[in-house]
Amino acid sequence: MQQIMDDIKAVVAAVYAGDFVFPAAFDFAAYISGVLRQEYAQLCLVFLEDSGSTLDHYILRYRVEKIKEWLVYSDASRQEIATRLGFRDARQMAARFRSVTGLLPGHFREIRKSKAAIRDMPFRQP
Question: Which Pfam family name is an example for this entry (predicted)?
Answer without folding.
Answer: HTH_18
